[in-house]
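Many introductory courses stop at the sequence. We go one step further.
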Amino acid sequence: MGAMVIAFIGVSAVAVVAMVVLLHMCARSGAPAAAARARGTAAAGEAGGDDIVVVDMGGGGGGGCGLDVAAIKALPKVVYGAAAATDQAPGQSSTGCAVCLGEYTGGDVLRVLPGCAHSFHRQCVDQWLRLHPTCPVCRTSLALAPASSPLAGRATQP
């Protein structure tokens, strides 16, 4: 019995040492990036600059930004209902939003993207399009997309 206790204590000590070594290695793997950030901050402080970085996440004007609000509002909308689940356009097999991963329910307002005809909850895809000018599923550019889509004739403006 005494030999088992000593063996258990030995194995426990080895396990604790191994955990400490692994945690130390994991913590050190992020150190180069943290050190580079610290050097950049120190260099900015020495140069008399501020330590504040401003990132513009708005959808206005710059290259690589999303669509403006007027362009997003111009995209067609449809109201999802029980008939929509059985009367889908060719290639439209999804009954859920790829942005929030939620299922469509009756009365949901969906935004239909031109060119690819993918549909999403209006509020989900509007947020996406403010940051990205492409379809969240197939990455078709909406900045160059034609004004009509396969569902544009069925679209309503609720």
